[in-house]
């Protein structure tokens, strides 16, 4: 078990970097989830994994539906279909509605990511995960005025640093003997 945490932190860190890179997002998400699953087994708290698993699935589902909405808007633009009897502008377009829906649906997954980062910070005493949770929270709050994108970007950097700065070994406290 002495190399399991080292392997898990590298998997999660590389996954976070690949997810951060953009084109390899789904591969990065899978690697990060595998690493976090191993970390949650080592600390014997499956909440960490669950708090990251469901938001990841939910976020990719939102991306898929958002892509379909934008594709529909593009199709309507190309074919000249206009379902509105008013002058077409951004606020009446389906892209704007998709953006609002995207922001609304991102609240719950991001809250669970914040919980997972706080748990990782609690178990390892890693300040980078606390910073990631704080920047993620403020990024969510300020997402509407586009400053949130920058804060979420900074939170992603703190998560990457947090994974790679985890210790190579974890010593289980006596009172946490079972895998919850």
UniProtKB/TrEMBL annotation:
<dbReference type="InterPro" id="IPR010397">
    <property type="entry name" value="DUF996"/>
</dbReference>
<feature type="transmembrane region" description="Helical">
    <location>
        <begin position="48"/>
        <end position="70"/>
    </location>
</feature>
<feature type="transmembrane region" description="Helical">
    <location>
        <begin position="90"/>
        <end position="112"/>
    </location>
</feature>
<feature type="transmembrane region" description="Helical">
    <location>
        <begin position="12"/>
        <end position="36"/>
    </location>
</feature>
<keyword id="KW-0472">Membrane</keyword>
<keyword id="KW-1133">Transmembrane helix</keyword>
<protein>
    <submittedName>
        <fullName>Putative membrane protein</fullName>
    </submittedName>
</protein>
<dbReference type="Pfam" id="PF06195">
    <property type="entry name" value="DUF996"/>
</dbReference>
<keyword id="KW-0812">Transmembrane</keyword>
<feature type="transmembrane region" description="Helical">
    <location>
        <begin position="140"/>
        <end position="166"/>
    </location>
</feature>
């Amino acid at each position: 078990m002495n190399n399991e945490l080292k392997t898990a932190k590298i998997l999660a860190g590389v996954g976070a970097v690949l997810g951060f890179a953009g084109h390899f997002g789904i591969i990065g998400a899978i690697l990060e989830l595998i690493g976090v699953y191993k970390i949650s087994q080592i600390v014997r708290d499956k909440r960490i994994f669950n708090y990251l698993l469901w938001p990841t699935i939910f976020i990719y589902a939102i991306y898929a539906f958002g892509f379909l909405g934008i594709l529909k808007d593009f199709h309507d633009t190309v074919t000249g279909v206009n379902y509105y009897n008013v002058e077409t502008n951004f606020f009446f377009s389906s892209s704007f509605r998709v953006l609002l829906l995207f922001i609304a649906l991102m609240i719950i997954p991001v809250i669970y990511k914040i919980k997972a980062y706080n748990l990782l910070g609690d178990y390892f005493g890693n300040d980078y995960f606390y910073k990631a949770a704080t920047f993620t929270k403020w990024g969510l709050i300020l997402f509407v005025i586009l400053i949130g994108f920058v804060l979420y970007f900074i939170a992603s950097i703190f998560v990457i640093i947090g994974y790679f700065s985890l210790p190579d070994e974890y010593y289980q406290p006596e009172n946490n003997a079972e895998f919850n």
